[in-house]
Fold Uroporphyrinogen decarboxylase.
Amino acid sequence: MTDLKNDRYLRALLRQDVDITPVWMMRQAGRYLPEYRALRAEAGDFMSLCQSPELACEVTMQPLRRYNLDAAILFSDILTIPDAMGLGLYFETGEGPKFERPLQTRSQIAALPTLDPLVDLAYVTQAVSTISRELAGAVPLIGFSGSPWTLATYMIEGGSSKQFSKIKKMMFSDPQSLHLLLGKLADAVISYLNAQVDAGAQALMLFDTWGGVLSPDCYRFFSLDYMQKIVEGVTRESRGRRVPITLFTKNGGQWLEWIADTGCDAIGIDWTTDMAQAKLRVGHRVALQGNMDPSMLYANPSEIEQEVQRILAQFGQGRHGHVFNLGHGIHQDVLPEHAGVFVDAVHRFSRAYHG
Ligand code: CP3
């Protein structure tokens, strides 16, 4: 196992000293890059990229060739688990992900298979090993999964949703069935993430994209409790290093203390939460990842640099623990040069806050 040449992302997650603030971008591999669009057109569709370890590796590496990123993230999707459970994932242009066989009844939930990630999601673990070999210790590799709640929204709604009426109907009229599903998903996520760590992932992240549509009580019982189960169930050390886990609940800014209570290493925060406030509330317990509005990349370079400086100043001096990122995925119509301005600005202007 090659040792890491650049470990500042892992160090920041553990709130250790770093020379400059590490940075990566959610959805850093994707449609805003012309080289991604070219490869995708060649491959035919998005899932073909995910299912080929070589292509997934190539796409993972694309943003690293352009920018001085401090981490790589596995190129895959959160919906691989429901697909492997037999729901039939497909993508309709402009409409996002869909399932051929969404879950409608308790008996369908009860009949969901238990996954063996090494068999049912072998293309993902093979992609992780291929990427890890290709990276050769240049930067750490992040493995990820969706949170049980977020996966369940797609599985029950049958795709993306605005109202979440089907899953909320189940939540309030038949909570036992929903808990049965969330429990099965938590078990699947634990074995999936552990297989990613075994294959070479050095940090983990849970995407709870839709936790923020819940009331505080429902968030706790239907999303956070299951993420806590995952935090407790995943491998936290591998090859002599801690494997940090980051929880990201979009629109979850009011629950930072609860999220820190799960025992995670870091919390991802979107742009609706003030970084200085977040640091005061939980910065002594966990690292914080974020939090520039991805739409800021539409602004001109000098404004992007100013916004980076503003967020760095908000996080401020002191015991570290900041991983710079966008507050959500990069938009597909952003100019690639602007992403470069962002990454370089984080490195250039953060030096003053360290050492
Ligand atoms: O961050 C990365 O670079 C790693 C790759 C990654 C993708 N999806 C690639 C992808 C990650 C971490 C995800 C997570 C994901 N997928 C989430 C959680 C994060 C978030 O954004 O909140 C969710 C909700 C999904 C489900 C999903 N997959 C959606 C909503 C979409 C977009 C559909 C569309 O047409 O806009 C996808 C497809 C997807 N996943 C793409 C990429 C690069 C676009 C595929 C393409 O058209 O080429």
